[in-house]
Amino acid sequence: MLVKMIQWLEYQTVTLKIKVQFLFFTYFERWAKWLSRKIVNFIFFRLCKFESYSFNFFDFTCFINLISFFTQRHAFHLVNPSILPLLTSLSALTLTAGSVLFFHGFLGGFEFTLFGLTSVLTCMFLWWRDVVRESTLEGHHTGIVQLGLRYGMLLFIVSEIMFFFAFFWAFFAAALAPVIEIGSIWPPKGIDVFNPIEVPLLNTLLLLCSGVTVTYAHHAITSGLKIHAVWGLFLTVVLAILFTCLQGFEYVSATFTISDGIYGSTFFMATGFHGFHVLIGTIFLTVCLCRLFLNHFTAQHHFGFEAAAFYWHFVDVVWLFLYIAVYFWGGN
Predict the structure, then answer these.
(1) What is this structure's pTM?
(2) DSSP for 157-168?
(3) Which candidate, 50, 84, 136, 283, has a CA 20 to 30 Å from the CA of 265?
């Protein structure tokens, strides 16, 4: 009998606790929403009285998202519905179809390709603009959200490694066992290769120095030294531009083209796609430099820069393998 009474009291205690928690969170949430509406209305009407300030729906949405950030009970970011993924997919399809038409010489293929490229770039700008706003102004990128973004960036870099692995596979397959059609020698007869200790070595030094400067900028951001971070990132961008210019000079002065057999194909595909990645990384770092001027990065919250730094170090490592395999070993 005593045991049953104790069990009944425990049951009633747990039930009462659950009811109290439910009532507390229910009324607390109602009170928080009521207070947020009062705050937004107060700010809305106060700001509208100033003639020099033009209030718009974007500001009102930011206030709502800021208040809701303090009332949600989890650390994850549930993104708002957007039409940008659909538009980006259609733009990529347009770019691909236009490229096929242009390569096959169809009338209007170039214009179709240009329209697709413009659409893709516009969607990229709008999409990343939303991501920047969500991470800075709206404060949705909590610690666990940033962790997920880091995992996503690392997986993207792994996919890029597999992409370049295919080019290295093609190069070594042709270089280690040259067929009789190219004279059973490597490099093929008639191919005047680049001297690895001239422009390629200078490009290697430029990329290695850029890796040092971007790391210096990263440490400066984590230490709260904005001026040092700006200079480190600025030097990284300058070194990246110099690398691209020297790569263009190398292509112009080359005595062979992409259509000159297996060597020309593998050389220009591997180094050309690496140059494209250097261009993307330069744009990435330039955007980070602009955001650094706008105080978007703090010592604890700077994933945008970390993603650019990860990407740039990946570009550095790929170039080291390209220099050793294609220029130094493959050219002798």
Answers:
(1) 0.75
(2) HHHHHHHHHHHH
(3) 283
Percent helix, strand and coil across the chain, each to the nearest 5: 75, 0, 25
What number of residues does the chain have?
332
Scanning the structure block, which residue is given the tokens 């994850």? 76
pLDDT digits (tens, 9 = 90+) for 127-143: 999 888 888 877 788 88
- Is the same domain home to 215 and 273? yes
CA 132, 215, 211, 275: dihedral to nearest 10 degrees? 0
Tokens of 317: 């490592």
Same domain, 267 and 155: yes
If asked whether residues 252 and 302 sit together in one domain, one would say yes
Distance, CA of 136 to CA of 69 (rounded, Å):
13
Output the domain CATH number for residue 175: 1.20.120.80
Q: Which domain holds residue 248?
A: 141-329
pLDDT at 118 over 50: yes
Same domain, yes or no: 84 and 183: no
